[in-house]
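pasting Glutathione-dependent formaldehyde dehydrogenase for the record, 382 residues
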Amino acid sequence: MRAMVYRGPYRVRVEEKDIPAIEHPNDAIVRVTRAAICGSDLHLYHGMMPDTRVGHTFGHEFIGEVHAVGGSVQNVSVGDRVMVPFNVFCGTCFFCARGLYSNCHNVNPNATAVGGIYGYSHTCGGYDGGQAEYVRVPFADVGPGLIPDWMDDTDALLCTDALSTGYFGAQIGDIAEGDVVVVYGAGPVGLFAARSAWFMGAGRVIVVDHLDYRLEKARDFAHAETICFTEHADVVRHLKYLTEGLGADVVIDAVGAEADGNLLQHVTSAKLKLQGGSPVALNWAIDTVRKGGTVSVIGAYGPLFSAVKFGDAMNKGLTLRMNQCPVKRQWPRLFEHIRNGHFKPSDVVTHEVPLEHIAEGYHMFSAKLDGCIKTVVVPDAA
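structre below
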């Protein structure tokens, strides 16, 4: 089969790999029909994530058709159209029993922190991802879900991470009716978080970014006010001015490890790898939220130390909530929103590339070329 493979920072290519085999009776092999490039894939692409090994196939957002199943699989059958959450999870451990699928204890040797994630380095279990023609899906009775007949393929694809994560970010912000919500980052996850904040009762939603085309999308898709942080000497001070000097009630960090805005922090973290990620967005979030407010973190960070203003968070009495999204837990409510027309997730998709051109797709997304917000990858499997 053809698959994207990692060859080092900024170097990905398409090569021939063996079609994955059934390794356990509860495995399924899925023929991928749609995949996506996620903003957190760029952390791998840029060499930010530890233990990203040469030859690894990325891709934690994918849907497809069941090609083969192990002997004990009962809930999906060959030929089924399935959407696969980015979490690899067993469904039975202490954490899965509590709906914390992203923290499954049985799928990752490094599970003291994160559980398993498709295509996201050996730090997250070493599972090959879906930017390929075929992918092995463990625990096929608990992970994949059947795509509803009424749902568009691209909408289903975005439910596997971006939409679910954005919705989760607003959910764990504990937004109360009338709250002022600030979202840092106008990528797909930030856009979905901002749109979701209205469903939680927000009275005002403000999105902060520095790319005009993404801010335009935030106004159009998320119906949010927007701020370009490069137009202000101190964006936190400006946000305090806009909120009567108090700060926002809830701030969502949808940026993560490679935030711009402070040259020194960006160089020491993103370039020299001296931290687990640039703390700029998270520190702005801590500074922007009012005393006693809530910071929701859904942007991805590496496991290394970052220079975060934890003392300020403590002294302000903040609630910090964060996790990788337990995707499948979000689906019932999101399916309702999509079917009722409250969401059209595919509205954030700007580009579609064949698998053979995925290197160009990564470059375009990484360099923010051609107004790229979200890229769908079409494997074209036979």
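Residues 12 and 359 are 6 Å apart (CA to CA).
The domain at 163-322 is CATH 3.40.50.720 (Rossmann fold).
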